[in-house]
Amino acid sequence: MTSNPPSSGRGTAASPGPATPSAGTSATAKSAAESPPSGPAAARAGGLSSVDQVAELADQLSSCADQLHERIMREIRSYQGGPVPEKVQATMRKLLDDEILLRQRANGLYADAATVIVKGLGKPQSHLMALTADAAEKIRKIGLIGEVTTLVAGLLAFAGAVGTGQPAPILLALDKIAKQIRIIEAIAPPKPPTAAA
Description:
By secondary structure, this protein is an all-alpha fold. Helices cover 66% and strands 0% of the residues. The chain contains 8 helices and no strands.
């Protein structure tokens, strides 16, 4: 009676079972899952979701303050050394105070960026940057100095809301800025038609 020859082990090697991940692989996968999103994923996460994004907005608010200062100085120069109406003087004094406050709030965001990161804002960083850039442009180009005050008040409210790190007041302030920009655009004189090519 002949016995079966012992298995060489080659059959087992040719048909391996399900691969079991090593401890190193598991740790790497877990680390990747827990790490914050970057690139396109970070864009989808919403604005102000990182220290860099908070600092980026602080830069933009500082730029708005720069545009406000230039607009005030241009208004003063427009009187060419002559008397400035009292109402205009009062408006410019208020705007100068607002400029200082806007810079203070921007500087506060630089200092507190790590503590005001917002989770689940629901608006991309690009939306925040575009809206505040549009506000800065409106401040620079706006016709009557008095029309600047409401827009600047909206920026101040927005900067203060960002400092809370809470989505609800931030979104409310953004909505007010957007509405004010639309009002300014509605009352602006129409652009002259461009000549046909």
